[in-house]
Amino acid sequence: MSDIAALIGQASAGKAPTVVLIEGDEYLARTSARELADAIVPSRERALNLIVLDAAAGAREIASHLVTVGMFAAPKAVVVEGADAFAEEVDAERELTRVRELWQARRQRDAARRLLKLVRSAGWGAADVALGLKTGASAAKWRKDIGAAPDEGDKGWLQELSSWAQAEKVAAPPDDLEVLVQAVERGLPPKTHLILVAESLPPKHALVRLAQEKGAQVRRRAERRGRTIDTLDISPVVADELGPLKKRLARDAELELKNRLGDDLRLIASELRKLAVYTGDRAQITREDVEAVVAPVREEEFFALAEAVGEGDVAKALQLFADELRRKANASAVALPGTVRRALADSARYAGSGARELGYNEFQAKLFPALEAELSAKKQKVPHPFAAWLGYKRARRRPRAFWRRALVRSAEVDFDLKNGADPRLSIERLLVEVCGR
Fold first, then answer.
1. Which three-class secondary structure state does DSSP give residue 347?
2. What pTM, to 2 d.p., does this model score?
3. Which fold has domain 1-221?
4. For residues 271 and 235, is the Cβ–Cβ distance under 8 A?
5. Residue 208 to residue 83: CA distance in whole angstroms
6. Rounded distance, CA 341 to CA 404, Å?
7. Among positive and negative, which fits the CA dihedral 138, 140, 141, 142?
8. What tens digit of pLDDT does each residue of 322-340 get?
9. Can you tell me whether residue 76 is helix, strand or coil?
10. DSSP 3-state assignment of 219?
11. Fold (topology level) of 299-436
């Protein structure tokens, strides 16, 4: 396993490997790939000799860029982001997130290709992805056939993508990874380099083997000194985003930021940019700034809402609801019925787990493996162990009959919302009712 700093040093000296695979956190891996590419290709030649593609372009198109000799004698680099798309099995939820990012970045062709490749195994075409239209598949069908379902808020851009892809006659790229592998194995033109970026590829994948044989493999992940989120080292992200602006992040502000966002470095980088704008001429970002600008999105927050309901803590439940409103900007999109359904499922799942409540480590050792196996068999997302532990604790605090009644009331409110009831008022009333029981 190579070190990225060493590779950048080699590249600066004109000795970069032919193929480099950078795996790990999306933000760190992508940033490292760009830094390596900049070290390979001189600044004056980058307009023509530095090419950045999404894996959605397809292996054949990537190979054509690699075998085409550069316009000038300077080194050439082809950076391929999202190389996880070449894996046989992909995380559907993560792919949907990537497609959303590409579409919002106005990379329509990459977004359409990537989404159509994701849904190809289900026999879907561009018309089927228009969630909310008659021609489009329902959220339930997405979940069943694809393994993940878009949110209500995704309807707009999915319909736009569907219409654009049909008008442009965009199709999913063919499964021709072997074309790319053979192109590299035959030998690339002199001073031509391939940089692959992926969160994770299987150890025996063809691209992993290619990197090991023809170049280097690097892993870039945020370091943790312990299990808790406060031990996550985000200093590289802070330096990248705030350093050029000569701004600092206070220690308590950093902790609050990690508590609200978790370990998603890409999201942390995005929120740091917002905070930099919000603070204006001030050199230091404070905890109060983070509380004012950054909405909590850690996975645990979704379970915390049900936890507050289970404990009857109406003030906390209303605060978490307000946080979700800030995140989704749509009261009717806050999925209280979903949290209640999860609570009801947990109540049934852990009914025979014994009279004594298990601590986190004991739960992780004794109960979490069975939960992981159950959800994996159903092709459902496996939660973080800590979030699952919160669900386990919540299930013990209220009887199953309570969650059944809460689910009925949630269904009634959902019906009212679909018939024109005020979203915010209805859900706040529901929270007060359920917490008060």
1. helix
2. 0.60
3. Rossmann fold (3.40.50)
4. no
5. 11
6. 9
7. positive
8. 766 655 444 444 455 666 7
9. strand
10. strand
11. Zinc Finger, Delta Prime; domain 3 (1.20.272)
